Amino acid sequence: MEWWAVLGLFLGVLIALLLWGLPIAFAFFLVDVIGIMYFMGPLGLNQMTLQISSSLATFTLAPIPLFILMGELLFHSGMAYKTLDVMDMWLGRVPGRLSVLAAAGGTMFAAMSGSTIANTAMLGTVLLPEMRRRGYSTSMAVGPIVSVGVLAGLIPPSSLSVVLASIGRIPVSQMLLGGVVPGVLLGLWFCVYIMVRCWLNPSLAPQYEQSGTPFGQKVVATVTYVLPLGFIVFSVLGLMILGLATPTETAASGALATLAVAACYGRLTVKMVGDSLVGTLEITVMVFMIIAASNTFSSLLAFTGATSGLVTSVQQLKLSPLMILVGMNIVVLIMGCFMETIAIMMICLPIFMPIITTLGFDPVWFGVLMLINCETGMLTPPFGMLLFVMKGVAPSDISMKDIISAVVPYVLFYILSLAVIIAFPSLVLWLPRAVQ
Fold first, then answer.
1. In terms of C-beta density within 10 A (0-12 exposed, 13-18 middle, 19 or more buried), how is residue 21 classed?
2. Quick one: 357 exposed, middle or buried, by C-beta within 10 A (0-12, 13-18, 19+)?
């Protein structure tokens, strides 16, 4: 069978199973088993077992459950809520202050939780009612809250970065560090955009009188409620940037720091820890099954010659490497409208990474592009996950159409960030190379 027929058959069956509603991991495993039985015979199942064992029995995956545990502990303890009040004290009469607070707070929480859904749900629950009460327009109230949630998948601790690195065979530490500068820059762009837009059209976010807070009280509140959370960020990101710990070690120190801060705030209860552990176990098992299925799928493509055939065909195209790269990103953007982030990674990375290597692109740089692109899919209709999360926490009078309209400018920012990173790869590569 020709390589293109093999590849088309695999992808066709896989997409059909996903559209049918089969969970991602089970859909991939089913395709793996069928493909192995057809091309390798029953003995190939033994090879599949060894492949699964080798793909999971690796030290590089250890940060995943620990990063997930950090996010679960922060979510179930509710430690981050008071931090928003303290940040609000320092904003003063900034145009669109609550929207800026959502963008800045979401960026900060992204450096602690790594969960896009938890980030969006928390900000929506805490800030959206107050924004509505103050007369903020739906675009200014909903847009920043939904859009900044994506940064939690980009800025460490991000289990999605580790998953992408594992599937794409990219160094985990470099992948995690590569997302820092783009993530922070996107958070700053959001803040500037909100302030400029609200300054030009004050009706979008009406100013309101805020009782002045003495400087000393602000300092005390910052030391009490912000610095401890900053300690969590330093335990992960700081130690990694300083080169004092590996990703696994920083994940462990981050989880311990989160437990310590929760104990200091009096939030460390048996129920909270139990709920966090159960949530961590459920998500970790799902992620590990997905990684095992994806690595097996990648090996199957290599065995059948689909990967080498595709790479050879791309080399023969009369297109520049840049055009091929842009085409890949367009494909991922379109897929993001209909599929989940991890499903896109599992389908595309085994196909794209050999091409990227052949074209001479840096895998870390491409990995960050891929991550931003996949995460943007969480904001795009009709199946953007964060759109449904916001609909779940928003008042009934805010329609899905209102939510989609509110996130459109931020989706354009994410697409713009892809263009900027393609033009200036050092935005991604500077920090990983500086830490080496």
1. exposed
2. middle
The residues near 270 (Cβ < 8 Å, ≥ 6 apart) are: none
Q: What is the CA radius of gyration of the chain?
A: 22
Q: What is the pTM of this model?
A: 0.83
Provide the CA 253 distance to its chain's centre, in angstroms: 21
DSSP string, 246-286: -HHHHHHHHHHHHHHHHHHTT---HHHHHHHHHHHHHHHHH
Residue 420 contacts by C-beta under 8 Å, 6 or more apart in sequence? 427
Reported as half-sphere exposure (CB side, CA atoms, 13 A), residue 109 has a value of: 32
User: Under 8 Å CB-to-CB from 369, ≥6 apart: which residues?
Assistant: 329, 418, 421, 422, 428
Rounded Cα distance between 278 and 125, Å, is: 23
Residues 135, 136, 138, 144, CA torsion sign:
negative
Query: Of all helices (H) and strands (E), which one includes residue 179?
Result: none
Count CA atoms closer than 13 A to 413's CA, side-chain side: 24
Q: Is 348 helix (H, G, I), strand (E, B) or coil?
A: helix
- Residue closest to 140 by CA, chosen among 191, 185, 193, 194: 194
- In angstroms, rounded to a whole number, what is the distance separating the alpha carbons of residues 269 and 81? 18
Is residue 185 packed enough to be buried (19+ CB in 10 Å), middle (13-18) or exposed (0-12)?
Answer: middle
How high is the mean pLDDT in each 10-residue block of the chain (436 residues)?
78 80 80 84 78 74 84 78 76 83 85 76 81 87 89 85 88 91 93 92 79 76 83 87 86 90 87 89 82 77 77 77 90 81 82 89 94 89 80 83 91 94 94 84
> Which backbone phi and psi does 417 adopt, to 5 degrees?
-65, -35
- Output the pLDDT for position 209: 63
Tokens of 413: 């920012």
